[in-house]
Specification:
Distance between the termini: 44 Å
Shape: globular
Number of domains: 1
Radius of gyration: 18 Å
CATH architecture: 3-Layer(aba) Sandwich
Strand order of the largest sheet: 1-2-3
Number of strands: 3
CATH superfamily: Alpha/Beta hydrolase fold, catalytic domain
Helix content: 40-55%
Order of helices and strands: HEHHHHHEHEHH
Largest sheet: 3 strands, parallel
Length: about 180
């Protein structure tokens, strides 16, 4: 049985226009090192991620969360086992093949032309201590490629900053939306 929305609901859904956007700790424009992206990370880094994932997906998801994702490997970090296990749980819910292929997708997809096409204001939010998506090869470059990009850099924040620094991130998102 198929369900059809009333015409008024269909037109409401299809006529909505995005007014603003935000990208947080995002991979654009391109993570991997290429001739056009000499500052990127060597492909061997991502090959290593795939090898670690293939060798032991469960351990991989635990180690990433317990270390670089939330910055829990930094001196003075307050380690939360609940946070680590929750991220591990989320990772284990996905398919192994999709995760393996996803490493190629996030590292080798070049979003440069896509970013140039976005016309709405975009808040680019990124921590300068992101050990997953290095700040220097992502956020500042994305903000420059966007027609209406605004860069917001967070000193010392990790990749998982929406979780570890939720109050700050949510306040800045809300302020941006209200502008």
């Amino acid at each position: 049985m198929s369900v059809t929305r009333p015409a008024a609901a269909r037109s409401c859904i299809t006529s909505r226009v995005m007014a603003k956007a935000a990208i947080l700790s995002a991979v654009p424009p391109l993570m991997v090192k290429t001739a056009a992206n000499p500052g990127g990370l060597p492909k061997e880094v991502f090959d290593g991620f795939q090898a670690q994932l293939a060798a032991g997906r469960s351990q991989f998801y635990y180690d990433v969360a317990a270390g670089p994702f939330y910055g829990l490997n930094r001196p003075g970090a307050k380690v939360s086992q609940a946070l680590i296990w929750n991220w591990w749980r989320q990772g284990m819910m996905g398919g192994a093949k999709a995760h393996y292929d996803g490493i190629v997708a996030f590292s080798q997809t070049d979003f440069t032309e896509d970013l140039k096409k976005i016309n709405v204001p975009v808040l680019v939010m990124h921590g300068d201590d992101d050990q997953i998506v290095p700040y220097a090869i992502s956020a500042p470059l994305s903000a420059k490629l966007l027609k209406n990009g605004r860069l917001k850099t967070y000193q010392g924040f990790p990749h998982g900053m929406p979780t570890t620094e939720a109050a700050t991130i949510n306040a800045d998102l809300l302020a941006f939306v209200k502008e």
